Amino acid sequence: MNLFNPHTVVAWKLRLRQSGLSMMWLITFFWVMMAAVSSFQTYYFFSMMPSGPPASRAVYLASLYSLLWALVTPLVFLLARIFPIERNSIWKNISLHLLFSIVLGLIVRVVFLLLQVSIPGLRPYKPMTMERATSDIVNTLDYQAMVYWVMLAIHQAALYYRKYQEGKLRSSQLETQLVQAQLSGLRMQLQPHFLFNTLHAINSLMYENKDRASEMIVRLSEFLRLSLDNTGEQEVALGREIDFIERYLEIERARFEERLNVEYQLDPAAFDYLVPNLLLQPLVENAIKHGIARIAGGGVLRISVNIRNESLLICVANSGPFLSSDPLRGPNENLIAKCGIGLTNSSARLKALYGEAHTFELRNWHEGGVEALISIPARLVPPDEFVNSMPDRGETFTHESTNR
After folding, report:
1. pTM of structure
2. CATH code 3.30.565.10 for 229-403
3. % of residues, the chain, pLDDT over 70
């Protein structure tokens, strides 16, 4: 998402404005309710005292006290945002909030006493001496601090609830994007011309090599099955992703025969690291369609994966024409968008999964052609999923580099 897009800026301003209005109404509602409860309690208490002050005066004092804290509450929320109570700074910020609660509590109580003395209808019957004011402030200091911490707790609860809702929304978006990627992968491969070419290649092999034709039918069925497997998984082991892409390449080899030369440069340790599900298929499909298919004599498709500086580096390079535009002269997102919905969806999923912790670039390959480079955080498959993450690699991936 472009943060400097005018529509994005307007949307954020509208969201902040709506958030501010909602918070203002929430604060107003809370303190009106507190004033009503406090007024009822004080009114009932003083009405039971034959020689006490008028009950109406107690109601005014309770309302004034609630009004003062209603005015201070936005400041409490601001301090809560500036000094959040989080795991990495919990003790430091709790100490700061303890200091803030004492200072604001003192200020609110002093202002309350000053207004009580200044407003004729609220003046106490006995003169307000320094000794009485000091005693009042000291005796109510714990209550003032408690009000601050209640406001802080409300803010934290609202913050955690918002994060929970954002997490649910994020999870829902990731699931939607995964389904779109799966459907997009199937759609790109199950187009009529793809099936026609694949079946035509199988039909030709029936007269030349029946065993090979039978193998291709099995490969096609395995590819279709794997396309529908792992539904709902955001990330899978690299080994399973490579196993899936091999099924796809077996079908492409039937079409291009000797024109398609596939090379693997895979770090064996990387097989047990997590990658986005269906990450490689659109990259490989794009490399064949826009690169090798346009060369009469065919070319090389190279898939390499390495681990470096706690990052998983993935590169899919192909022979063919260079990029029509220089990546150094414009945003790389524009190049990705021009390559179709497959790479666009892949870019969107990478942003949703890893945020700023990933990179995705298209650039000219020094050996002649184009290469797509992806860097994501290196994370191992969870131990409870390790056994199920191992594919049947056979002899294909026993070496770091294999030419087929």
Report:
1. 0.52
2. yes
3. 73
